[in-house]
Amino acid sequence: MASPRTLFAKIWDGHTVRAATPETPAVLYIDLHLVHEVTSPQAFTELRRRGLTVRCPDQTIATMDHSTPTTPRQRDGSYRIGDALAAAQLTQLAQNCAEFGVPLLELGHDLQGIVHVIGPEQGLTQPGMTIVCGDSHTSTHGAFGALAFGIGSSEVGYVLATQCLLQQRPKTMEIRVDGRLQPGVTAKDISLAIIAQIGTGGGTGHVVEYTGSAICALSMEERMTICNMSIEAGARAGLVAPDETTFAYLEGRPAAPRGEAWQRAVRGWRELASDAGATYDAVVQIDAGTLSPMITYGTNPAMGMPVDGTVPDPDQVADPARRASLRKALDYMGLEGGRPLLGQPVDVVFVGSCTNSRISDLRLAARASAGRRVASGVRLLVVPGSQPVKRQAEAEGLREIFEAAGAEWREAGCSMCIAMNGDQLAPGQYAVSTSNRNFEGRQGKGGRTFLASPLTAVASAVSGHVADARRLAGGECRKRGVA
Amino acid sequence: MNRITSFTARVVVLPIANIDTDQIIPARFLKVTDRAGLGAGLFADWRYAPDGAPDPEFVLNQPAARGAEVLLAGDNFGCGSSREHAPWALPGWGFRAVISTFFADIFRNNSLHNGLLPVTVTAGVHQSLQQQLQRQPEAAVTVDLASQTLTLPDGTSVTFPIDPFARHCLLHGVDQLGFLLGAEPAIRDYEAAHPPRIGTFAVRSGAAS
Ligand code: SF4
């Protein structure tokens, strides 16, 4: 009898074109390659230089998201791109896609959006696939039980040319989250708690599989939030076994199989879950019932704590290297150890990014905004992850709720997650952000980021300072967070 | 790809832990379509004062850094974004190797594609090297890829791990894309046995059925 295999092993084995030898890594086949404007130009240049073509254009799709403006469009529906460098990069992507025959969801296309939002939305992301993109948050797609990971631009070129990558087999880690979340605690909080526990390097060299009753209970969009943040713990990829929730989400999506093919696909997908008795190289256990809404106080995503907690005091940290790193982070953040974050004034609140810009995130944010006003002096930006998310939110009346609260309603894109498009913090400003990285300068040079869930973000926007959504009057937190 | 064997060079010491790729090269420098010139953006937020002038306090701007080819960084180097611009910017400035106790996966992999050597050492070696360089800032280290050794200024040698295939490629000038293209028959066989799982054109045209 074959020995029990993990979900990861089944996907890996099913995509091995040529097995590894002692001298050479495995050749791994890639089913779907997602492309965006920032990490692909050098790859297309290399193809051109060598006279190569794109091997499988029909397994490749490009979008424009990182450096695109999200400010409202002009009256004729077109975008004004003020930044000449960004404009050149977008033009280059359009030229590359035209020349190499790659389908592109360009700015203005009604499906354009953040690369990790559009794949699942269109049903391109399916269980059992291998998916890559020149972007570290490709781990998002693992929520469907696909092996999805970020690659560099050289490898973008390899996949364009050969549809394959050279890969050393990673190790596996199970992160088991059991129990029930308390009211007001969301998928984002699970992620931030995991990263705070295992550190930014805790998952290095591993593909993580999230298991346990708390993970099974999550919606697809919540699972995407969790898998998205896997890279912040250093993991190569994050996976959730496909189940009825996955199939229900996918059924009827534009690129999903139909009819007889759908039935056949689902039968295959049911076989993917890790076999009973399969083992992992490492195991981490988390009790969901003990988790609080989380917030980061420092300059990497592992510097996180419960929103009503106390910022650690460097003087209390025994290890000198950790003490130095915490002190440097708090200096940058302009914070003092040993104090709470609740009440810390904020300048900007950003709801968006491939972590938290899907319709359920916007519903949650709208519920916390409804009937309230953004505090004076605070900017709340709400940036939908894609054009379809934007249309859906408008159809549901969410836009009115945000605008009535005084928030800015934007076009789809990465926006202030990476601050390449003009949406950015000024030096010294504080932001509560639903994105995934609080590195120094990530949201603008000198900007200071607190990462949190959409609920915490909006509670802070309406309070004018870091706030605990559970204490907002009205009680939208009584229900567990997400629609 | 140029071959790499061994080189001896002076070291810039930047003993900060958790340097992420946003620090190595901030996102505003990514609005480029080629890989040239990225050295100017290396560590930009630390390197330049708000008015754009080089900050004389920052180690890369000090005269002693000139000509150095090895970076000694703190623990956990290169986490975060997959931007290959990071291992383009480091050699763009002149670095050929980075020494740390730990490298993030994607950064390490990207570096090896660009002839930048990630040299992983133990905390003890890291500390000792830092102390030696404190005493003798002008001292050099030798990085030898063939024997996978790092020789410290005091003459002690330690080995460092490196992916064997990447090492082979760097030593012999093997180009990984060329190697993959050589797998064409196996790729064709795989594709014959596994029809594509997806079609992206249909999505673009809105004609997906
Ligand atoms: S939203 Fe942020 S993390 Fe996600 S793809 Fe865009 S820049 Fe990267």
Question: How does this structure look, described?
Answer:
The complex is a heterodimer of chains A (483) and B (209). Chain A is an alpha/beta fold and 483 residues long. In chain A, 31% of the residues lie in helices and 16% in strands. In chain A, the strands form five sheets. Chain A has a five-stranded parallel beta sheet with strand order 5-4-3-6-7, with helices on both faces. In chain A, helix 12 (359-369) links the parallel strand 15 and strand 16. In chain A, helix 2 packs across helix 5 and helix 12 crosses helix 14. The longest helix of chain A is centred in the N-terminal third of the chain and has 17 residues, at 84-100. Chain A starts with 6 loop residues before the first helix and ends in a 20-residue tail after the last helix. With 209 residues, chain B is α/β, with parallel strands linked by helices. The longest helix of chain B is centred in the middle third of the chain and has 13 residues, at 123-135. A seven-stranded mixed beta sheet of chain B has the order 4-3-2-1-5-6-7. In chain B, strand 5 (140-144) and strand 6 (149-151) form a beta hairpin. Chain B has one domain (6-204): Alpha-Beta Barrel (Aconitase, domain 4), CATH 3.20.19.10. Classes of the chains: A alpha/beta (483), B alpha/beta (209). The complex binds iron/sulfur cluster. Iron/sulfur cluster is lined by residues 65-66, 114-116, 135, 137, 353-354, 414, 417-418, 435-436 of chain A.
